[in-house]
Amino acid sequence: MITVTTFAIGNRYIKELPGWVKSIKQHSKPVMMIVGLAKPGESVIDVYVQRSDSDKVAHIYEFRPPVNGKLLTNWNNIGFLKPCWISAVLDSDYCTDTVLWTDVDSRTRGDLNLVVHDLDDCDLGLVYNVNHWMAGTIAARRTPENYEWFKDWGTACIKKMKPVQTNWHNNDQTVMQNMIAKLQAPPIIDLGVKWASLPPALVGDKKNPVLVAPSDENAIVWHWQASRGEVHGWNWPPEERYRKV
Hints:
The protein is an alpha/beta fold. It contains eight helices and ten strands. It is globular and about 45 Å long. The mean pLDDT is 90.
């Protein structure tokens, strides 16, 4: 059994959390879920743990990220917190041997425990797509090397936090890519695009189609990218009843 983790910070992402949990419970064998939840502007995140084969949810502690008083009030700062969160999960007593991060606006369509097989002999797995490493799905074994790397990545991200900023080209993923390019990361295996299928391109008018499906319907993880609504002004991602789930 693996540990699957995410956090929901701010109203847009809090609305995504029930769908994230439901899809895991429907499509995956038992996993341990560690979830963070915070209202907009808060710097303290409530941490909950739940097995996917149980309805029992336990509040285990409050996570105080090392953000030096910087509020999590914008898309960049929320994303910059991701590696700090993953390092804290790796250090948690509730964590199993393998951690899988998936963005809260993603949906599970298969058994997430299969990531252990796809990691093979490597301790860190990402998805390489369109000539860059993506950060929406991240698999990491619970090793000291991974723990330190996520801490270092988090430190680099926190340095870029600003009170008010939305810069789509300077985010947690670009910081990660720069570290990998400079060989400042453990060995990485490509998990393959089945772990991070993206939604189709936004075309046509600004109304949600009746049915929306990603480009690869056989993928284990579907990413919906709630931030697209901020970029394009669309109602995106569509309501759960309009998605092919």
